[in-house]
UniProtKB/TrEMBL annotation:
The entry's DNA-binding region: 33-52
Keywords carried by this UniProt record: DNA-binding, Repressor, Transcription, Transcription regulation
Ranges where the HTH tetR-type domain occurs: 10-70
Superkingdom of this protein's organism: Bacteria
A Gene Ontology molecular function term of the record: DNA-binding transcription factor activity
Keyword Protein biosynthesis: no
Protein's recorded name: TetR family transcriptional regulator
Amino acid sequence: MRKVDPAKHRARRQYILHAAAQLFAAKGFERTTTAEICKAAGMSSGNLFHYFPNKRALFHALFEDDGADDGESKAERLARAQASDDPWVALLDVVELLTADAMNPVAPALVMEAVVQAHRDPELDALLGRDNAQEHTAVATLLAKAAAAGQIDPALDPHDAAAWVLALIASLYTSAATDPVFRPAEQLPVLRLILQRFLQAPPLDAHPPRA
């Protein structure tokens, strides 16, 4: 049996996911065919199924936390943020992390399609639910720590405030998906300002987010 090169396998898998993401974002899950994905990825259906057992598994994989190019997963980055000595700066870093995909023209429409499919797909709903729970825990933890450190309004309930922080982040995706003139990159500074004023945090220029 031929030995599989893990790096090549991962690269090929990512190439397929990229090709499929373009189609799912443009046409939706239901209207995208396996044949179209194969054509976009430049491979046969047999070869495609070597990487993904079916179209739905491929769609799910787009929302799994497999790690960034540096090998660090989102869960690991959220955990690292929660351990930071400066919870306000760490929160800004988390906002940067969670809004980064919105800058990709394909991502907002893909996220909207995932929301639609989650109502029909319990497995996808559970996957997205776990992801949302991780994000909420991280943001709520940082808000509680920031309040204790005197960095934000201590009267805010961290769990309620975290829900609003995540709702504002989600609005960056929904607006980008539904409004053709909305530019997430241009609106990100506004989002940060809204969060700073809502949380009664220090001025943003005093604590710029890390790259």
